[in-house]
Amino acid sequence: MRKGYITVFLTLSLTLILSLVFTVIEGARISAIRMKFECVADIGMNSVLAEYHRELLEQYELLFVDMSYGGSHANIGNTEAHLRNYMQKNLKPEGGFGNGIGVRDFLAMSVDAVHIGRYSIASDEAGAVLKRQVTDYMADYPVGAILEKINMGVAQIERFGLESRDIGAERAHYEAQIDEIGLPVEEVEEGVFEEVPLDNPADAANATRSSGVLNLVLENPSAVSAVKINGSNYISHRSRMQGTGVSAEASAVSGNVNELVFQVYLFEKCGYYRDEMEKSLLKYQIEYILAGKDVDWQNLEFVAKRLLLWREVANVIYILSDSAKVAEAKAAAGALAAVLMCPALLEPVAYTILFAWAYVESLQDVKTLLSGGRVPIMKTAVDWKTGINSLTNVRGSLSADSAGQGLNYKEYLQIMLFLQNKEKRAYRAMDIMEMDIRRTPGNARFRMDACFDTYEAELSISSRFGYAYEMSRSYGFY
After folding, report:
1. Average pLDDT, stretch 251-266?
2. What Cα–Cα distance (Å) separates residue 163 from each residue in 143, 169, 419?
3. Would 174 disulfide with which of 70, 192, 348, 394, CB 3.0-4.6 Å?
């Protein structure tokens, strides 16, 4: 009888012990499921970021994931599928524990849902996401001296109204005065009268205005690149995919985007006239960002015309303040037969000569800049290159000059880029990136608005043992 009591006691004791053991095992299973869910989520989301676009990093130092993965259809669903696949493989790795014959999976987990609801696309907020990465990349770049020079140049442009003053209207005002006064007449034979020709040297100079700036200032205009693109294929011209903008986490880490730093970055990564890049489709990329034309020639012509405008305003300001040159122009005007017969023409003719002289000097300035030389924004007497005789032989009077003082072509471009609308600047810069990346193997359909750098995923898993969990995680390049 005592042995029976012992057996019942042991049975009751084992029941309690086994209950405790099974409870501990089940608790371990729950903890293991939670821990594995955390680990698999981290591995999966990091694996998605590991698929960053290699060419974009190599050429532009930017870390973005292309949602098209080299295909033709870009959407966040592709990334969700990649994330699900990474998580599922890490939950049940091939050849790992739980796949052997007769071995039971202690956790039996599977992915139920993967949803990416928030993600920052490169082109969001007019390129703010892209610029955030650029600001991070340029953090240690010595930009101080460059930025100081740009700021000083912009201040002079604005102070003297080089961008806003209408020199053409001022020139037309003096030409209209000549028309109002009218030319004197002389009798060439009895009863026959003709106007005395004005023979204004300014007319010969102004006649070249329709020739095109590049044709006047370049030694060999045919050497200018004529590469042509179809602008409608690029991001600045098409409707764009939208993300959720700069994430709060990335913004907190990076701080404010510096537009000047972004501009310095563009000059590091993009080519321009006389400093082209082999990788580029368009050879004059900075000029494209400024002009947005489909042909290299047109972009360079746009910049040259703007330079000519700036130089003409600056040179008019100077020449009207130079008493010696004003006296020279009045002497040239006073020597004309029509002016001798009609002194009222002296003042307006002299001013048309001064404006034409400033124009020829401006052509010389643009030629100097495109030849690699330097031109100050505002000149003094020692900086002036042309004489009054150059008005009658404009092309022959211009000479290539790679010396001088002041700013060079690149620095004038930097000022132009700073003055440009920042949204246009950002989207056209992304055009350039698309052009160049599409030239690399496997990237024919690459789009900047298909690239994200941060994302937030809502994940859920379940276990065959009746457990289910959800979590939300944010990951990105910041």
Report:
1. 74
2. 25, 14, 10
3. 348
